Amino acid sequence: MNSIDESESLATLRRLPSIDAVLRHESVQPLILLEGHSYVATLAQEVVSELRSEIQETVSPLAGMAANELLAEATSRISRVCESHARVRTQRVINATGVVIHTNLGRAPLSENAKGAIADAAGYCSVEYDVDGGSRGLRGKYAEDLLLELTSAEGAIVVNNCAAATFLALTVFAAGKEVIISRGELVEIGGDFRIPDVLTRSGAKLVEVGTTNRTKLTDYENAINENTGMILSVHPSNYRIVGFTSSVGGEALANLARSRGIIFYEDAGSGALIDLKEYGLDREPVVRHSIESGADIVSFSGDKLLGGPQCGIIVGRSELIEEIRKHPLYRALRVDKLTYAALEATLDSYRRGTAVQDIPVLKMISATEAELELRCRAFLNKCPEIPGMRLEVLAGASVIGGGAAPDVRRSSPLIAVSHSDMSADEIETRLRYSDPPIIARIEKDLVLIDLRTVSETEEGEVLQALSRFDVRIPS
Ligand SMILES: *Cc1c(COP(=O)(O)O)cnc(C)c1O
To answer: Residue 233 phi/psi, 5° resolution?
Structure first.
């Protein structure tokens, strides 16, 4: 660095704003109200020291800047950091992907009733209080009663998620014992939930029977000995072996387990409370059928096909459920008042017989191609003419997704968005940067909007985001 450069950089350094001047700036004041003085002050120090090092670099775009320009640079960097918080925090998004149970987007969107119940229970609520008697009540009793009614089981208990339910059931009933499971069911169910690992961690000894594609009743029979505690059947939700296959039905396994005095546990996973065959979900075990076929305990998620809050539900024989309730691990895995409130409101819809109308997951899965086609056409009609932008309706499919039946697809018309001056990636990014963010998918260089997972009230927001496409983003 020669001496002229050096003196210029020294002069620029002297023009750097003080932290105080940055904090007093009119664009920074509202950020202080929002994020707190001490956080923004630290940020200001970081930004000014970042500018200081950049000025000292051999080639620096900041060299020679006036004091007001340096102040503007500092405040705009602070604003950018604070703006990014709005994007990284957990926030509402519009799911235009067509994946109904989208794990990254919060799985099941709750019904209006369930949302209201959460808001009501957020303050003090009667989660463990008996309003009738004016004394302590049983935690989660109403949710459990609804589950008994809807599944015909004798007992029910709710924990944090289905992974917790599985771990708990195995810990309580199979620690130190052998658990027989078919090789075709030693699956990983997304998010690092591997059945063999959960089994081993719970202290059970895994006994694999059959082969990956075929397991017979005699395979189970031959594996039973005096150390056997349980037969486990796992519904391979996200995995399917096709072709030359056979597996043993729940009823036969339940009979075998009963005759040998061991437990038959079915991990049903996605937990359909009603039969969803007519919507293409013909392999999803209905919990009531599993109980009626003789399963001793059945576990399933609350936020997959059931369409409620995140939780794991175990139903089954009452003495087994009570044994779970007494175990210290249950206390560690139990759910909070908000979950009970949302679950009760969701289950109320099933009791009332309005589940398919009320519960978004079921409403989306059951939407027909013709209904969606009408919505797509109306959407195109409402969309203003944007120079360069083209919208068209294409034939496609939505997936049910997310651990629950990801290979089940429902035919869906899709809205393809293209633009003469923008790549598919640019369009997708702009939608994602809308407020609220709109998450779309790209297929064959086309951005696709699937209205199956977009509620009718959100359609207006998507239209509004598209109508802003005539405004160029300064790059
Ligand atoms: C999804 C699933 C789980 C895990 O459930 P979470 O609620 O995500 O913890 C466990 N078992 C089966 C069969 C599943 O499908």
So the answer is: -120, 125
